[in-house]
Write a structure and sequence with these properties.
The chain has 239 residues and is an all-alpha fold. The chain has 2 domains: 84 residues, no CATH class; 113 residues, no CATH class. The chain contains 9 helices and 2 strands. It has a two-stranded antiparallel ribbon with strand order 1-2. A hairpin with a 5-residue loop joins strand 1 and strand 2. Helix 2 runs antiparallel to helix 4 and helix 7 packs across helix 9.
Length: 239
Amino acid sequence: MLWPRRRDGFGLTCEGCMTARLFGWKRRTTLIASLAVFAVALPALAVGASAVGRGPSGVGEIPTAQAPSHFAAITSKRLGARDSMTPATTGAAVAFQRSLMQAEMLEFTTESEQTKDMRGIERSLYRGEYFTPKTEPLRACIVKRESEGRYDVRGGGGNRYFGAYQMNDDLADGATWMMLDEHKGVLGAQAARSLMAELRETPVTKWPRYWQDAAFYTIFNWEGPGSGAAHWAGGRWSC
C-alpha cells in the first residue's frame, strides 16, 4: 500500500522546511509534556492528601520494556505506602505516573543524546513490542551492510533509499502507521499521532536513531518473527 506524501523533485519537501520542523520537535514535545502533566495534576493532588503526603516520587530510569502494560507495575513500586488510598485516588496516581513516563519517553525518543547520535552500530534503542533480542546480531549486520552505521546517509539505486536501514519513502511512511498503535500507549495518543505525522513529513535521514530502530523492528516482526525479513534480503553480502 502506498502512503500519500508531498514531494519535490527528490521525493521530499523542501530541506529548509524539514530542518525547521525537526528542530521544532523540542518545543512541541515540551508543550505536550506540560499539557499532559497539567491534565492530571488536579486529580493527582488528592493522592497526597489521601496517602498521608506520600505521593508519586518522580520519574525514574527509562523502562527497558517500553510498553503500556508495564505502567501499573512500575507505579506500584514507586508510590510507596498507600494504606488509606481509595480506588479513585489510586487511579489518579496511576494516571499521574503514566503521564510522567509518557513525557519522559517522548523526550527520550526525540531529544536525548542517545537518539540524536546518528553514527555507529549500537544496541537498538527501541525495545518495545516488536523487539526480539535474538534478532540483534542480524540487525547489526544489516546496519553494517546497508549504511556502515550511518543513520543520516542517503544512497541505494538513484539515491532513493535512506538512513541506517536504507528504507525508501513508501516503506518508511508505512512504518509510521504500523508504529502508531504501540506508541499511543508509550507516548500518549495525541503525542503519538502528532509525531507519526511529523515523521511522514521528515526525510528518514533526519529521523532520530530510536525511530529508525523502531521502524526496522516493527516491519521485520509485524506479522510474526522475521515476517518482514524480505525487505532486507540480499545486498553486498548475506546477513
